[in-house]
Design brief:
Number of domains: 1
Radius of gyration: 15 Å
Order of helices and strands: EHEEEEEEHH
Distance between the termini: 25 Å
Number of strands: 7
Largest sheet: 7 strands, mixed
Helix content: 10-25%
Length: 131
């Protein structure tokens, strides 16, 4: 089972803006990180799950990792955002590991994540310890 990671969709004003990040550009998307994850080999076949408003909203499959000239690392992602069942997730800096058994399921075609439970409701229910 692959290992995943989570990252905040920093700077996004809406879910639609997060989706727009994946609409144009080269085949792969690259994010910069200071250090190579120690468990990077376990992430083969894994995904980066995006957090927006304290909720996991989608995932991008991880292609791999590549060192930059300045010593930092690229996290290389497929340029697609797969919507997932909304799941509460606390904010954090940088990225964090996410075990496969803790990862939310992908949404089926035609399933609307806001119809299931809006992100703000998931966040509020999580604060109360109800989800």
């Amino acid at each position: 089972m692959p290992l995943h990671m989570t990252k905040i969709a920093y700077g996004a004003a809406s879910r639609e803006e997060v989706r727009s990040w994946f609409e144009t550009g080269p085949e792969e998307m690259r994010l910069t990180t200071r250090y190579l994850p120690k468990r990077h080999e376990e992430m083969q076949g894994g995904s980066l799950f995006w957090i927006y408003e304290h909720t996991l909203i989608g995932r991008s499959p991880i292609i791999g990792f590549e060192q930059k000239d300045d010593g930092r690392w690229w996290i290389k992602l497929e340029r697609k955002l797969v919507p997932v069942h909304p799941l509460p997730k606390r904010a954090h800096q940088g990225w964090r590991y996410l075990a496969n058994d803790k990862a939310p399921r992908d949404l089926e075609a035609g399933e609307d994540p806001d119809a299931l439970m809006p992100a703000t409701m998931v966040k509020d229910l999580a604060k109360l310890g109800l989800v």
